[in-house]
Amino acid sequence: DGRPLTHIAAVGDDVWALGPELVVLRTAGRWSVLRGERTQSLEGVAVVGQERGFAVGRAGLMLARIEAREGAQWTPVEMTATPPVTQDLTDITFASGRFGWVVGADGRVGRSDDGGKSWAFSGPLEVTELRSVAALDPLNVFVGGGGPGLVASSDRGVTWRTLELPAMKGRGVGLDLALERKGADIVRLVAASDHGFTVETVVGRADVVATNLGFVTPSRVSSADGSSWLLDLTG
């Protein structure tokens, strides 16, 4: 209907796409609108299972798509946090369908251990204006934003460490993140930023190797089978 789509996520044969005002689903070869109100601004989407997912957005908004007898419904999720979550929620991800993480513009990270039924927030982290979160597995999580570098956790988000990236000289690095396991311990982490680069690190360590790619304004990134794709805003 002409409204923009800005995010996309896939699980199995289902593809979810998100725009500021709507969420759409492609399943069995057809697209359908899951949520289309124009009164709420959405920033991120995560798929947990078949036709089950979460959307986050402005002013602490989190919606869960829950299956019910009368059909699937979008339900606001109440979150436990001190102070209350009023900042924009910018991205959300899950691992193994049970463990979830959500990041906010105020630098706080929310964690769920029960499939998104309840959330507890901690922080703020050293990295500010959080924009993206990616989980390799239920233990290893990476968060990016506008601060001095990326942050990582190896204990489900209980504690965090900063991954220093001297090559970036303090530029924002976390507009979007993609993760790919290369071996038992090696992780390939690709980040989109105001200057694109790739990062390779070992799970549990703070040292990383960054390679500047010289892109102008990469906004989205994907990685699979040793190859990566960065979408640049200039086209």
Protein traits:
235 residues; mainly beta; 4-stranded antiparallel beta sheet; 0% helix; 50% strand
SSE map:
Elements: E1 7-11, E2 14-18, E3 23-27, E4 30-35, E5 42-49, E6 52-57, E7 62-66, E8 73-76, E9 89-95, E10 99-104, E11 109-112, E12 120-122, E13 132-135, E14 141-144, E15 149-153, E16 161-164, E17 176-181, E18 186-192, E19 197-202, E20 208-212, E21 218-224, E22 227-232
Antiparallel strand pairs: 1-2, 2-3, 3-4, 5-6, 6-7, 7-8, 9-10, 10-11, 11-12, 13-14, 14-15, 15-16, 17-18, 18-19, 19-20, 21-22
Describe this structure in words.
With 235 residues, the protein is an all-beta fold. The chain is built from no helices and 22 strands. The protein has strands spanning 7-11, 14-18, 23-27, 30-35, 42-49, 52-57, 62-66, 73-76, 89-95, 99-104, 109-112, 120-122, 132-135, 141-144, 149-153, 161-164, 176-181, 186-192, 197-202, 208-212, 218-224, 227-232. The protein has a four-stranded antiparallel beta sheet, with no helix packed on it. Strands 5-6-7-8 form a four-stranded antiparallel beta sheet, with no helix packed on it. It starts with 6 loop residues before the first strand and ends with a strand.
Structure summarized in a few sentences:
This protein has 235 residues and is an all-beta fold. The protein contains no helices and 22 strands. The strands form six sheets. The chain has a four-stranded antiparallel sheet with strand order 1-2-3-4, with no helix packed on it. Strands 5-6-7-8 form a four-stranded antiparallel sheet, with no helix packed on it. Strands 9-10-11-12 form a four-stranded antiparallel sheet, with no helix packed on it.
